[in-house]
Amino acid sequence: MLAAAIPIWELLSLGPKGYGDEMLWGALRTLQISFFGYAFGFALGLLGAVGKLSGGPIIRAVLQFYTTVFRAIP
Question: Contact 25/13 with Cβ under 8 angstroms?
Answer without folding.
Answer: no
